[in-house]
């Protein structure tokens, strides 16, 4: 529980680090006499809160609406005349904007090579909570990945034991195609939001055949986004990182991206018959 002397922004940052889902309430308009003025803020969780927008009936009304908003998501504005609507003595009017702050989307990058380095940096800058997995101590370092968590372990072992909740993003950019294959097989068995792998169209087709030979159906194979990234003519690791993160953002925002496996599935199926 936050202490009353804690700084508001420090508490907000801590709740974000803890991956909490909560509501930020901000007074956006006041008229007449009110207990707080424009810019007053409070944080409202499912069972606790921090800060105040004035206490009393107005705060109770905002907290009730905020907890209902946690159930459905989105934003809302609570507008009340303090005397006429709430029976308070102030006599003024307040409008409070409330918004649900979702935990940052988790991105796990398998591999710590030349593409992973700018990819992790760009993704973190765009609001992803990034973890980089690679057992090579000389590659998976805090100096190379200052904005990411480091898992210095075998990527395949991590993928095998990963307990996902269905909201995470995973990108495979290792240095070894057989390792990519083993990681992808584990990832496609998880309810991930996004699974992507760096590679060419020939690599895509070979992986499709191998996955089908190992019992994966077309729907499962179609979940693998490869070639990875949006088609922007990227060539350098930094440009490739931008194209990949653009695709991740599109998925996070619910926007359509170029199809990956589906357009090749029929051709691959015909080749294998």
In short:
The protein is of the alpha/beta class and 273 residues long.
Question: In angstroms, what separates the terminal alpha carbons?
Answer: 62 Å
Structural class: alpha/beta
Tally of individual domains: 2
- For the largest beta sheet, what order do the strands appear in spatially? 8-7-6-9-10-11
CATH superfamily caption of the largest domain: NAD(P)-binding Rossmann-like Domain
C-alpha-based Rg, rounded: 24 Å
Please bin the fraction of helical residues. 25-40%
Strand content: 15-25%
CATH class of the largest domain: Alpha Beta
Q: Give the integer mean of the pLDDT values.
A: 88
Principal-axes geometry comes out as elongated
- Write down the CATH topology of the largest domain: Rossmann fold
Low-confidence stretches: 261-268
Secondary structure tally, helices: 9
Q: What does the largest sheet look like?
A: 6 strands, parallel
Can you describe this structure?
The chain is an alpha/beta fold. The chain has two domains: 8-101, no CATH class; 106-272, 3-Layer(aba) Sandwich (Rossmann fold). Helices cover 36% and strands 21% of the residues. The protein contains nine helices and eleven strands. The protein has helices at residues 8-17, 56-72, 116-125, 155-161, 177-187, 201-213, 218-221, 237-252, 262-272, and strands at 22-31, 41-44, 49-51, 75-81, 93-101, 106-110, 129-133, 149-151, 169-172, 194-197, 224-225. The strands form two sheets. Strands 8-7-6-9-10-11 form a six-stranded parallel sheet, sandwiched between helices. A five-stranded antiparallel sheet has the order 3-2-1-5-4, sandwiched between helices. A hairpin with a 4-residue loop joins strand 2 (41-44) and strand 3 (49-51). The model is unreliable at 261-268 (pLDDT under 50).
